[in-house]
């Protein structure tokens, strides 16, 4: 079998075409994933609305007799279970979205390597580290990202809804056990806040845990303050 001739360097046009193909593939996958999780969130909110309406109708039909608490707790329990599953999916998609962002940042680094002059036209980052991802997510502000964007995220929204559902469920359980109203409300509020805080801790640990394990290939250059400190 004849020896294969060594291949020459790939022309820049071919490299750009390969990189663009990968870029479009990542964009399509990211769009599909985000569309899927938004559909899941909409379905969950429809379920919450339908569940609360059904409780109101059932209460009026049964005049809130002895069978209503069991029905209400069952409905709230099912809705909360679906909400927790939705929250898990939203958290997973958030991490997947970060992976897509880092992958596309690497491709931008390749674009800049092919044509250094294109760097000044990129608003998103060609760096696949923490600072680069923050710039890609929020490239119009003076700071990379602020806490209001975390509070306004889909993950926090679902966690807040689930916390409210858990509070309602705890209220029904404690009142069914004969606890005083004040103590029941206190337990419900504390339980809901603990769930919300726990959701934030779990989400934050996954996010920062990724950065502790991850090694960027194209780290961001140090800013002026860091450069002066290193000198």
**Structural shape:** elongated
Assembly level: single chain
- Helices and strands, in order, run as HHHHHHH
How would you characterize the largest beta sheet? none
- Strand tally: 0
Class per helix and strand makeup: mainly alpha
* Total helical segments: 7
Report strand %.
under 5%
Radius of gyration over all CA atoms, rounded: 25 Å
**Termini separation:** 58 Å
Number of domains: 1
Helix content: over 70%
User: Would you identify the regions where 5 or more consecutive residues have pLDDT less than 50?
Assistant: 224-231
Mean pLDDT across residues: 88
Description:
- This protein is an all-alpha fold and 231 residues long.
- The protein has one domain (12-220).
- 75% of the residues lie in helices and 0% in strands.
- It has seven helices and no strands.
- It has helices spanning 12-62, 68-114, 130-137, 147-151, 154-176, 181-213, 224-230.
- The longest helix has 51 residues, at 12-62.
- The radius of gyration is 25 Å and the shape is elongated.
- It starts with 11 loop residues before the first helix and ends with a helix.
